[in-house]
Model the fold of this input.
Amino acid sequence: MSNDRDIVSVILVENNAQLLKHLQKTIGLIDQVEIVGNALIAQEALEMARDLKPLVALVDYNLPDMNGINLTEMLRREYPNTQVILISQDNYTDIVLQAIRAGACDFITHDVSVKELTDVLKRAAALAVQDRVKPQYPFGPAITEKGPVVHGAANGKIITVYGAKGGIGTTTVAANLALAMMEVNKDSRVVLVDGSMQFGDAHLMFNELGQLSVMDLVPRVLDLDREMVESVLLLNRLSGVYIMPAPPRPEFAEKITGESFARILEYLRRIFDFVIVNTNSYISDTVLSALDAGEVVVVVTAQSINAIRNTRLFFDLWNAVGMTKERIHLVLNRHDVESPITTERVSERLKFQLNTILPDDEAAARKADALGQPILKSSRDSDYSKAVVSLAEQILKRIDTVEKSEAQRLRLFVTA
Ligand SMILES: Nc1ncnc2c1ncn2[C@@H]1O[C@H](COP(=O)(O)OP(=O)(O)OP(=O)(O)O)[C@@H](O)[C@H]1O
Ligand SMILES: [Mg+2]
Done:
């Protein structure tokens, strides 16, 4: 019944008895919409989505066992053929944004009118139907228009962004650098690869959410083709940057070996001019793989004892494994002129010259976060943006130097 032609099948996920009644009554007034299930808790909703395959799930923000945003994320991930509409008491911007980032297609408040609910449900159902007739990976690419052009040779440059301490702004640098590379190198094709395998959040900086990730390439890693690789990429239309998301759950991280990741990065060189890799501080095999693959490694540090200590330990490791310092571009993020740990002291402690200094700009970072856009998009005139553009220019020069000197790479994971 739920998949009958022209009938919009809906599951209602609502714990508040009064609201449930109100919604049932309102939906009862709408033609060709049928409630196929009522779930009081998230767990029940997941089972219903699996068994009933509804076109639409109406999910309340407040549920006893899970927040509606998390449920939205799970439903979209596990049952992508069901569209989710989030219901909340108020339409606060942050809730709306969270809902969209979690993959909801729409948002309504408790006092929704029959007319509005009709429109929202029909729109959601149309989307769900459209998705069901679209061929799914691996039979067709997710990106069809303006797809990247394939180069014959593997000419693209890999730039790996690494911070030896968490939370110091590594992903922010990677996301903004991706945009800046497009700006300083007009018409270049740029992909931001999220190599922070457990808790990757690079896609959130662009307010994008996909269903596939780097993980979906692993089973076919020995025989990658363009269509398959493109199918896991998200295109951020606002900026033109492509994004390869990290796995959706932390426990999937271990499915990606250093070797698989190296192969994927090498393949991306063929399709893109610049491959920017976001990483996390823990040096796993995949992070090592990205550090090894990068023509240039942007090392982010900060004016704190911990960050300096970890960066020093990282440099020791880098030297110990025999990689050359030429490939490193050292960036101080969140520069605070008032800090007693001056830039000179940072440089002295690290025995390394600071190559680029990015200012601390809380207002711009907050705005970027709220809009789901990198700072370079949301605050183009900020000092941070200007500094990132200059970082991109310096990196281009460094790539040139590194290539001329054939700086040493270990090729730990890929031999061919
Ligand atoms: N230059 C800056 N000025 C002000 N705030 C910044 C700056 N750079 C980053 N931030 C803020 O710092 C926070 C952490 O940034 P980000 O997520 O990029 O760090 P990270 O090092 O990637 O963290 P994680 O280790 O969790 O991956 C974010 O809220 C971001 O907006
Ligand atoms: Mg990060």
Notes: The chain is about 40% helix and 15% strand. The first strand starts at residue 8 and ends at 13.
